[in-house]
Amino acid sequence: SLTLRRAAQESKTTSAPSPASSMFKYYGTEQNKTRFEIILSFMGCQSMGWEGDGFEERELSATREWLRSKANSIEGGTSEVQLNIIAKRVLGLPD
User: Fold this and answer.
1) Which residue range is the domain that position 16 belongs to?
2) Residues 95, 85, 20, 12: is their CA dihedral positive or negative?
3) How far apart are the C-alpha atoms of 67 and 72, rounded to whole Å?
């Protein structure tokens, strides 16, 4: 997208990361968490396996990816930190 290109260009020309990078990280991680929560809700009890013969590989994979999506919202700054960055740099809200 145009915004993604602009953020990439800004990161090359300035030492500080673009506020858009916080927006992309927040949106991407939250969307990913929601996607896997929906998938797991459709799978029911079969979505809670970690290993074992009672689960198919796709079920185990979905569970692991769901847990991984939770970690993604912590890596590189929690979603709450990203929202604070957006509030200050994009919206101009005070500390």
Assistant:
1) 2-90
2) positive
3) 9
Whether the Cβ atoms of residue 95 and residue 31 lie closer than 8 Å to each other: no
Task: For residue range 22-62, list pLDDT tens digits in order.
Answer: 888 888 899 999 999 999 999 988 888 888 788 888 989 99
Find the length of the chain. 95
Short-list 70, 71, 58, CA closest to 33: 70
The number of domains in the chain is 1
Position 48 in a domain: yes
pLDDT of residue 85: 85
Q: What is the crossing angle of helices 19-43 and 2-13, to 10°?
A: 130
